[in-house]
């Protein structure tokens, strides 16, 4: 059992070719989040609007889909799919650290709070600019 894992949301800015998911997303926010997680030594997964729960080593192609433009029914359906994927894929851990906005978290929280002893959302409530600043200044999670 690992002590902690991290979940990171996908972002709009992507490479223009298929590649490992951890390299597909190219925004400053994602790059900084990935760097922080890797420095912290955590196992991590990506919350993809298109693919659900994605291992960062999995090769995927660019896509144009976001939970921010989905209706509530579609977001609930996505969360049900992701919850099933998490049950199958996520390692046992004490804590989950979530680097994702409200839309990516909202329907996953009951499952995550039930499964993990501790759910940490370090950037909760921060604007995009403040999140970038937080990511720049955090030495580890």
Task: Explain how this protein is built.
- Helix 2 runs parallel beside helix 6 (128-137).
- This protein has 141 residues and is α/β, with parallel strands linked by helices.
- 27% of the residues are buried.
- It starts with a strand and ends with a helix.
- 40% of the residues lie in helices and 22% in strands.
- It has helices spanning 21-24, 28-40, 72-89, 102-105, 109-115, 128-137, and strands at 2-9, 19-20, 43-48, 52-54, 59-60, 93-99, 118-120.
- It has a five-stranded mixed beta sheet, sandwiched between helices. Strands 2-5 form a two-stranded antiparallel sheet.
Count the helices. How many?
A: 6
Mean pLDDT reading:
95
- The percent range for helix content is 25-40%
> What is the spatial order of strands in the main beta sheet?
4-3-1-6-7
Task: Assign the CATH topology.
Answer: Rossmann fold
SSE order, one letter for each helix or strand:
EEHHEEEHEHHEH
How large is the radius of gyration? 14 Å
CATH class: Alpha Beta
Q: What fraction strand? A: 15-25%
Largest sheet: 5 strands, mixed
What's the count of strands?
A: 7
Second-tier CATH architecture: 3-Layer(aba) Sandwich
Coarse morphology? globular
């Amino acid at each position: 059992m690992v002590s902690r894992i991290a979940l990171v949301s996908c972002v709009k800015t992507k490479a223009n070719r298929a590649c490992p998911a951890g390299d597909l997303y190219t925004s400053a926010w994602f790059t900084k989040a990935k760097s922080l997680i890797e420095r912290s030594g955590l196992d991590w997964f990506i919350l993809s609007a298109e693919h659900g729960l994605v291992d960062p080593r999995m090769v995927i192609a660019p896509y144009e889909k976001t939970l921010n433009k989905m209706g509530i029914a579609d977001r609930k359906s996505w969360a049900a799919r992701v919850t099933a994927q998490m049950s199958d894929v996520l390692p046992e851990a004490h804590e989950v650290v979530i680097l994702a906005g409200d839309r990516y978290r909202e329907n996953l929280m009951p499952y995550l709070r039930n499964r993990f002893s501790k759910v940490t959302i370090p950037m909760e409530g921060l604007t995009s600019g403040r999140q970038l600043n937080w990511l720049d200044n955090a030495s580890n999670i």
